[in-house]
Amino acid sequence: MSIIELKNIRKSFGTIEVIHDISFSVKKGEVVCIIGPSGSGKSTLLRCINGLETYQGGEIRVHGDRVDTASKSIRRIRTRVAMVFQRFNLFPHMTALENVAEGPIYVKKEPREKALEHARELLTRVGLAAKADSYPPQLSGGQQQRVAIARALGMQPDAILFDEPTSALDPELVGEVLAVMRSLAAEGMTMVVVTHEMGFAREVADRVLFLDGGVLVEQGPPEEVLSRPQNPRTQDFLRRVL
Ligand code: ADP
Ligand code: MG
């Protein structure tokens, strides 16, 4: 069963088309990694999937529901597909615990006590039980990103989209975030991960997509796309990053 389905997606900013006819789907429990040079459209594609951006052509469906920013179902789709950003995007004036519980309380209308209890469990799951009462500025980048992952999980999403979740981190903090993502993958979470971490993609991805200039150039299992890329553009990109 496909949780996310993109068919012939086209996206323009003004008169410039930045996503050209992209189709792919993501099944339940699948981990799809998207790689590609800066400016190739990776973030824009993720933002279209959870309705943060409109698209001009084709169709995106989440669990069969059409992603249409103008429709009433968009709020429901956004709660089903969580997003983790490069720059954490936590509320600085709220504790880690409050950051995780905020969505369940205000968006999902869960009772406060129950939401706080669940938020504590989620912080434990990402290894941050001891930091529940800390504010984001008191946490390292790696800890903030783990809070952001706990917050995404708090919405009990069907899938999580990650947009370069480790790119803003000091190198020594990358591992702790990737470890949490690995454990989510092992638990069967459906994930779409834009990343430059080729080791992670090789190890965790079921499928790797290579984007270049808004075109989905190549896709397949990591051992094919990363080790034996067929397309010269993929070969050239990998030569530069590996
Ligand atoms: P990536 O995430 O792969 O680096 P992006 O999705 O951020 O690429 O950008 C894809 C293209 O769309 C780039 O040419 C970028 O300049 C353009 N773009 C992204 N966001 C906007 C925007 N809000 N307005 C205009 N152009 C944009
Ligand atoms: Mg980007």
Overview of the molecule:
It is a peripheral membrane protein. One of its GO terms (cellular component) is plasma membrane. Residues 4-238 form the ABC transporter domain. InterPro entries: AAA+_ATPase, ABC_ATPase_HisP-typ, ABC_transporter-like_ATP-bd, ABC_transporter-like_CS, MetN_ABC_transporter-like, P-loop_NTPase. This is Polar amino acid transport system ATP-binding protein. This protein has 242 residues and is of the alpha/beta class. It is 38% helix and 26% strand. It contains 9 helices and 10 strands. The chain has helices at 42-49, 74-80, 96-106, 112-125, 141-154, 171-186, 198-204, 222-225, 232-241, and strands spanning 2-13, 16-27, 31-35, 57-62, 65-66, 81-84, 159-163, 190-194, 207-212, 215-220. The strands form 2 sheets. The chain has a 6-stranded mixed sheet with strand order 6-7-8-3-9-10, with helices on both faces. Helix 3 crosses helix 4 (112-125), helix 4 packs across helix 5 (141-154) and helix 5 packs parallel to helix 6. The chain is globular. The mean pLDDT is 96. Residues 13, 18, 36, 38-44 line the site of adenosine-5'-diphosphate.
